[in-house]
Prior knowledge:
There is one protein chain. Helix content is 60%, strand content 8%. The strands form two sheets. It has a two-stranded parallel ribbon with strand order 1-4. It has a two-stranded antiparallel ribbon with strand order 2-3. A hairpin with a 2-residue loop joins strand 2 and strand 3. The longest helix is centred in the middle third of the chain and has 28 residues.
Amino acid sequence: FIFLDSETYKKWRKNSPIPEGDHHYEDYWIETEFFDYDEEKEGVWGIEDRWERKHHIILFDKNSKIKNLYKKKLIFDEKEKKKIYEHLSDKTGWYIAELPNVWIKRGNIPQAHYVMNTGIDRIVEYIFLQNNYFTPWAKWKLYYVFLMDKLPKHFRKNILKAMKIKDYTKKDVLRRQKILIKILKQLDLYKD
């Protein structure tokens, strides 16, 4: 990330000396983004924005402006965690243990699989929360969840099995559901 004053930011948006976006430089893939420092200072950073910034190394920071901005913005307080927990604990089991059965009864197997996929995403988000970790952007979620310290037993093997849709049958929905309920129980997100 490159934080610029407003005037420089406007100039660089039109014609920058450094390429913006994802690009290859020597033996490295680099993602470069430009930000207006004043807008970033005043704006609200969502959880994914905070995750992303938490993973950056500050290479140059005259007067510690960026360091101080990060100190102010990279906060994951208990009130926010509680709100996320309530949201996830309320619906995750529903997406996995109940809704697929509703869609099976309605005769819509693809929808039964789809709601379980939503539940899988919520399981992953819950694991980040359990590890006191900001939730990453979707493109990084699965990669980083496997790096978490606190994981359900055999999580990688089980979640990969559950993610796989073998066919669009009731039997396959129930196969996936059984694996996911086992994970939910380990996370205390589901009781029989």
